[in-house]
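TASK: fixed-backbone design
INPUT:
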């Protein structure tokens, strides 16, 4: 390296420190455990997250009787403090999920103080608001409906499936699905996303045990992708997160491609520490110069009595901002 280049190199390297430090500062300031984040905003997400765990439990093939007791009590406490009469989605979702939970357990002829507490909670809710619940389950007694031919049908019919037929998909079909998913866009057409596929039951189980978000259905997953990307495709501090952007776009396209081929998927998070990432790479034979984005369970939907979590969506107006261009009060210009 020429001596005259050294200041430029130091400048480039120091960008890593300043850019990562700003990531950290922003994250620490606004994330869901920050004491500086608004309490109501944190409660909004907390209720959604905890309620979804109950919906998910209900959508399993054989949910444990009275599962999630502590979580349910916590949800009811959080909703009461959020406002039991609110018609915002965390509350309607919690109400729907608890209605389904109660119904299922009463149908089984079970009695328990938890069920009485849910009943009292739902009566309190009814007195406070006439709006119905949105969370709970979607039922498909005749199996998954055929994919509607129009493009919107492909999107509208997708859901995270956690009840699979035992047999994995034919590897030819897996290759066809991945081929179709390669239509995904990528920055400068880098195509740095890598798909690692496993259908050996012991390996799938080993990998899912490290993932942690599939408890309750990890023995039922017939096929598993680990979505990764090549670090070598990215350089400079500014690009540090771009492999995750491309990887996520690929993952979504993959799930829709699977749907187009009549298969079902469940995205699975890899919100893990570096030590677990290394263990997954070792177990999966994934090269050290790749980073992991997420996992995707894939297979054929259970043919009968299929259930899925309702996962209701927020109002479009809450998600879409026809922006005025005026800076929000908390944005500090650089
Ligand atoms: C990145 C990502 C990670 C996810 N991780 C998990 C997981 O670990 N376990 C799980 O059961 N579902 C997981 N999900 C599925 C979500 O719960 C699901 O997408 C959401 O509730 C919306 O429901 P839908 O996919 O049926 O429309 C994940 C979804 C995404 C996008």
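OUTPUT:
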């Amino acid at each position: 390296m020429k001596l005259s280049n050294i200041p430029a190199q130091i400048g480039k390297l120091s960008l890593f420190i300043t850019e990562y430090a700003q990531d950290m500062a922003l994250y620490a300031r606004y994330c869901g455990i920050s004491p500086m984040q608004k309490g109501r905003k944190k409660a909004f997400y907390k209720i959604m997250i905890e309620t979804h765990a109950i919906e998910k439990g209900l959508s399993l093939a054989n949910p444990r009787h009275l599962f999630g007791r502590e979580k349910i009590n916590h949800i009811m406490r959080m909703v009461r403090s959020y406002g039991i009469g609110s018609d915002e989605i965390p509350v309607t979702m919690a109400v729907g999920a608890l209605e389904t939970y109660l119904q299922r357990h009463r149908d089984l002829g079970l009695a328990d103080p938890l069920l009485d507490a849910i009943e009292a909670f739902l009566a309190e809710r009814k007195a406070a608001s006439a709006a119905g619940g949105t969370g709970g389950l979607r039922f498909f007694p005749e199996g998954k409906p055929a994919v509607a031919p129009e493009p919107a049908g492909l999107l509208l019919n997708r859901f995270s499936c956690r009840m699979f037929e035992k047999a994995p998909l034919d590897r030819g079909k897996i290759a066809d699905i991945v081929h179709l998913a390669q239509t995904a866009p990528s920055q400068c057409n880098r195509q740095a996303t890598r798909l690692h596929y496993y259908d050996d039951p012991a390996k799938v189980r080993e990998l899912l045990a490290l993932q942690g978000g599939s408890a309750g259905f990890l023995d039922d997953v017939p096929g598993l992708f680990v979505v990764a990307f090549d670090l070598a495709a990215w350089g400079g501090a500014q690009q540090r997160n771009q492999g995750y952007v491309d990887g996520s776009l690929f993952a979504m396209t993959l799930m829709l491609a699977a749907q187009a081929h009549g298969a079902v998927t469940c995205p699975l998070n890899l919100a893990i520490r570096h030590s677990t990432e290394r263990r997954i790479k070792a177990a999966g034979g994934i090269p050290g110069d790749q980073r992991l984005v997420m996992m995707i369970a894939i297979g054929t939907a259970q043919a009968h009595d299929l259930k899925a979590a309702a996962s209701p969506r927020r109002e479009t107006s809450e998600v879409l901002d026809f922006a005025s261009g005026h800076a929000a009060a908390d944005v500090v210009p650089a």
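COMMENT: DSSP finds eleven helices and six strands in the chain.
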